[in-house]
Amino acid sequence: MPRPDPWRLDVTAYPWTDTVQTRFADLDVLGHINNVAMAGLFEAGRARFLRASGMFAVREHRVMLVNVEINYLAEGSFPDDVVIGTGVARIGNRSWVLQSACFQNGKCIATCDATAAIEGPGIPDALRGLLEKWAFNR
Asked: Is the pTM for the entire model greater than 0.70?
């Protein structure tokens, strides 16, 4: 796994953040947040981002998540909450990439890149505008 770009380790780099509670059920036998639970934390953060950004309201075409890549950087634990930072990294003709990171106690413990694609001729203007609004300023 290549190391993430340094900016990805800084919660202030993300245009949107939200706090998500961890659960005791998220732990593996060693007491760490397990890989499946981490995927669930990213999913919760992504869903909250889509709702808060207004992207859920754009229903002209069917949207599918086509790829998810998670890189684990450090151990997470319970009961401390995590902060999920999210932003739009790339916008194409029919797909876009959301980049997220999971922070616990100020430290980045995982990153996630999720690619979504839209059915139809291309990204509608209303959705493209929302994606551009939440794009990273790098």
From this structure: yes
